[in-house]
C-alpha cells in the first residue's frame, strides 16, 4: 500500500488565475479628467451655453460617468464602484476649491490696484467718498480693537464653559447650558446687535463705541468657542486623566496641565474659526459703532469704523475710486484673518506637548 502511495504521480495544484484581473494604468484618471474637460467645453460651446459654470458641471458629470464605464469594462463592477466614490470626492474637492481660488484671484487682482503704504497709513478724513485717495487705517485700527476685545471676552468664557460641560457637568444645568449654546449658534448677527443696543445703549445710556460692537461680536463668538472646545476636550483620552489622578494630582491641576495642553491645537483652531466669523460682521458694527472717517484709537468712547463696514460704505458709493478702495479693504481683511491664523497656529504648536523620544 505504501509503495502504491509513493508511486502515485503528484500533480501540481492549479493556479488561481481568477484572483488576478486587469488593472487600468495609473494615468487613466488624469486622461479621463482631461477628456472630460474637453468634452464639457465642446458640448457646452456646441449647445450655446455661455456660462463656464455649466461647462464645469458637465465636465464633472462626464468624468464620473466615463470613469464608471471604463472601470467596469476593464476591472469589473466592484472596482468601478470604488473608483466612482473616489471620483466623487475629487469632484467635490474641485467644486469647493474653484470658487475659493476665483474669489482670492479677483480680490487680489482688484485690491492691489490701490493697496500700498499710503492706503494702510491714512484715513478718509477730508477725502470725499467719490474722490480718489484716502486710506483704511482708521477701519483697520477699529477692527483690531473690536475683534481683540471680543476675543478677550468670549474666549475665556467659552473655554471655561466647555471645561465645565466636559469635565464637571452632567446634570440638568449642563443640559440647559448645552441647549442654549446650540440656540446661540444660530442667532443672526443683527439680533446680537439689537440686544446690545437695547441694553447697553438705550437702557444704560451709553453712546456708540467700539466696545459696544465688541460685546455684540463676543455674543456671536462664544457659542462657536464652546462647541469647538467641547469637542476637542472630548477627544483627549481618558487614560491621561486617570494616570494623572492616580498620581494624586487634583482634578483642576489635571485639567490645567494635562487636558488643556493636549487639546490646545484644536482649541486654538476653534477660537480662530470664531474670530474669522466675527471679523467679517457688518450689522452689529453698523448699529453700535456707527462708522466714521476719523481715526479714533479709543474703543470705549465715540464712533469707530471697521473693515467690513468700510467695504460696505465704499462699495455703496459706486464710483470707480470707491469700489477700488472697497476691493483693497477686502484684501486687507483677508490678509488680517490669515495672519491671525498663522500666529495662532504657531502659538498652538509652541505650547503643544512634545511627542517622541
List keywords for this structure.
single chain, 15 helices, mainly alpha
Quick take:
The chain has 357 residues and is mainly alpha-helical. The protein has helices at residues 2-7, 28-47, 52-74, 77-111, 117-121, 137-168, 172-185, 189-203, 210-234, 238-246, 251-262, 264-279, 283-288, 307-317, 320-351.
Please describe the biggest sheet, giving its number of strands, its sense, and whether it closes into a barrel.
none
Beta fraction: under 5%
Q: Which structural class best describes the helix and strand composition?
A: mainly alpha
Radius of gyration, whole Å: 30 Å
Poorly predicted runs: 10-18
The shape is flat
Strand runs, count: 0
| Helix fraction by DSSP (H/I, runs of at least 4) | over 70%
What is the element layout, followed by pairings?
Blueprint: H1 2-7, H2 28-47, H3 52-74, H4 77-111, H5 117-121, H6 137-168, H7 172-185, H8 189-203, H9 210-234, H10 238-246, H11 251-262, H12 264-279, H13 283-288, H14 307-317, H15 320-351
Helix pairs in contact: 2-3, 3-4, 4-15, 6-9, 6-12, 6-14, 7-9, 8-9, 9-12, 10-11, 12-15, 14-15
